[in-house]
User: Fold these one by one.
Assistant:
Number 1:
Amino acid sequence: MQPPSEQSRDRASKRLSSESNGNSEGGIGASTPVEMTALEESFRRFAIHGDTRATGKEMHGKNWSKLCKDCNVIDGKSITLTDVDIVFTKVKKKSCRNITFDEFKAALGELAKKKYKEKTAEEADAEVFKLIEGKAPIISGVTRAVASPTVSRLTDTTKFTGSHKERFDNSGRGKGKAGRVDVVDTSGYVSGYKHAGSYEKKLSKPM
């Protein structure tokens, strides 16, 4: 058996070797162009859209189509939804229903050649990448409720009758407790009498 000191040196050298391999892999990742990192980030955002189980490493056809729509890759002229579907089927593996990031870039390259025919392959790829970099799925707005005549009638306080009418003032604002509780009138006047206090005013006038 090796002495304890030599065993510890062996373990240390193995650990350093593994760390060195990890750093070298990190170095490769660090040398990736910034625009490719932005492109991959957008890929991941669209890949997980609407799917809580998605890992972001693969994208299915529905989200691929959404990406092309939201990022204006589809223009209805040189690139249509049909073109997008055909390219997706072309780049993915036959036994798979999703595409990886590398297959995603290959698909964009196919579309770039159709969309930017006058440019070189590299220039066309760069133009398509710019459309996608930093983008995220567009979330549709909340559907506005359609006004219903029935609802409008039921919520129009001016048409309320009986005890419900007493709960609101002329502007439609609720009176609160005053509109729900019967208040005893101790003034001595008959309910609904509109000239309360007029007699006192008449007496107060100088003769």
Number 2:
Amino acid sequence: MKLIMLGSGTSTGVPRVGNDWGECDPSEPRNRRSRVSIIVESKAGKRILVDTSPDLRMQMLDNNIKRIDAVFWTHDHADHVHGIDDLRVLRYDRSGPIPGYAGEETARRLRKRFDYVFEGQFGYQTIVEMNALERVRLCNGFAVDWCTMPHGPARSTAFRFENDGRSIGYATDFSAITDEMLRTLSGVDLLVSDCLRRRPHPTHAHLDMALELAKRTKARRTVLTHLDKSMDYATLRDELPKGIMPGFDGLEMMA
């Protein structure tokens, strides 16, 4: 099973508007970060997209993604959903809508904000058929597990995808580690973890919290994501322990 990291940056990306690179070296290509989104791909070639970042169109072009088989959303914050319209092109060659999955509150908010995506309008086809996340355990050959996570005053969803004896865990946008997260992500072959910056943050994991999650889940390997402009790729890479690495846009890894 393969991870494709479409985007690895925080809500403003790196650099921020105004060409603000912060502490990131602008000459290092892996410091240029679009908003977070991933694809997990099975040995059979089935692809699940997690989140529809505002940069989705360019992410799909950069990674030569022409088809997905389902889409999952972690939560409804803008940097995770506002590229939803770019799913239209991925719907064109399908006989029906793309299957979509989200928690109850996230699904409600998405339907309200993007009603045309889920209902079709003015002769345009429905793009996504939303399904209850609570009922999914299998999707396109992937076993799926999930749990909710604290994200400051909001909630986000962590996912675990398994296929062909391998597992990938995805936990972005969390502000505390819970027992349910440890249960869901325990022993994954590859963990993708939120890691905004080194200093604690009220709604996101900081470096020490991300390292703690990796240790307590006993993940075989961990990739850090949702990195802000203070997290220079080379500097971070050189200080991380074995088995943990910074993510970057376009990263592909086998679980």
